[in-house]
Design brief:
The structure is a homodimer.
Chain A lengths: L15 H19 L4 E2 L1 H5 L6 H9 L11 E2 H12 L5 E6 L3 H8 L1 H5 L2 E8 L8 E2 L2 E5 L3 H8 L3 E4 L3 H13 L4 E4 L12 E4 L2 H13 L10
Parallel strand pairs in A: 3-4, 3-7, 4-6, 7-8, 8-9
Antiparallel strand pairs in A: 1-2, 5-6
Helix pairs in contact in A: 1-4
Chain lengths: 224, 224
């Protein structure tokens, strides 16, 4: 494999769409590894997601030269490299701010743990929740944010507070060292350039789905 | 406004990215309406999301000609038109399949209710959950899916079952009339062309965030 020291021949970060697809290829590689396979192809990596093999090759080429024509990719090697590139070859401590229903669901979301994301601290403003323990983590008041982030050396946060508190809490988190926010509040956040935000607005995704579906409903029979 | 009968001058559906941004403009319009304003501009519609006014104009032009140079957009009118275009000018009954932690959080997610999405039926395979009532809805066995979908005339489903059950349950839902699936299971679904799927894989979004953040962590001090 032709890799620079950090496994990343490009100096600028890959576009979001490329990173998203590489996450999918990694999932497929892990699935193939569990099935006991040792080699795979661009076709096999993209096929479950409807991604063409030329696109798979182009996406992977962004990070280095893997695999060989006629031979394909070594599954174990490529998993290690992609995990390193994506930053999931290590544990990522997370903080969770806002322990409503969604916060509680995220706390138990197995998808995070299996990708080595661990919620190490929980913050809320509700006196009834502060001091309670959920999934082995004790809820702390928002005032303790700075101390908690320093103690756990976390830079990623799940923001699950109500919409009208989101910007204020985000400002607070950024002031004490948070660099990445997965925002579940249905409002856009204004953040400085060194901070990354990914918004998860479930109602927008449902709206997109409704838009796609509404055109195809004429003549549908539910009596089936 | 220059609109065809159904408010949709294009015959083919708008690209996903356009629909997603139009959902954001609608949110901003509703926010301006709540502030008592009656007129707005492309700049004001895109500004909270960092979208340039030329892009706003181009996105809206996909659906018709709204607003006038020098005058701008009538907020109330544009809200009504965009709601109709997006299909959120009516109630959308949803079914929820799989009542784990995430399912329970979605059941209480206010963002759905405020966009007129209502969970009208819940299905699970766990005998301990079947017959129980959550948020006023009684959990039914998966066998009752066909009858439940016919009774509620639903075409949208939230799929919150474990990964290894997702494809089987999706097949079942599609066979009885579901046309749109918001998939929370961390696996891709194979579906026929008349069915739409939007995947919500929270761990992929967190991976994308970790990727963005890992490059910017050198020299960060958590001691603040």
């Amino acid at each position: 494999m032709d890799l620079s020291r950090n496994g990343h021949p490009n100096t600028k970060p890959a576009p979001k769409a490329v990173v998203g697809r590489v996450s999918l290829y990694l999932r497929q590689l892990e699935s193939l590894q569990r099935q006991g396979l040792t080699k795979t192809s661009s076709h096999q990596l993209g096929e479950p997601f409807g991604i063409k093999n030329a696109q798979v090759r182009k996406d992977l080429a962004f990070f280095g030269q893997f695999g060989r024509p006629g031979i394909g990719y070594h599954i174990n090697d490529l998993i290690l490299v992609l995990r390193r590139i994506l930053g999931v070859d290590k544990d990522w401590p997370l903080i969770l701010v806002g322990l409503g229903n969604l916060g509680r669901a995220l706390l138990r979301y197995r998808g995070f743990q299996s990708r080595r994301f661990h919620i190490v601290a929980i913050f809320d403003t509700d006196p009834k929740k502060i001091g309670q323990t959920y999934q082995g983590v004790t809820v702390e008041p928002l005032d303790a944010l700075r101390k908690g982030i320093a103690a756990h050396k976390t830079s990623l946060a799940l923001l699950c507070v109500p919409a009208d508190a989101a910007q204020r809490v985000a400002d607070l988190m950024i002031a004490v060292g948070i660099r990445g926010i997965l925002n579940f509040a249905p409002v856009p956040l204004a953040v400085p350039p060194q901070v990354s935000v990914i918004a998860v607005d479930l109602s927008i995704q449902l709206e997109n789905l409704a838009y796609k579906v509404q055109g195809s409903l004429d003549g549908v029979s539910w009596a089936g």
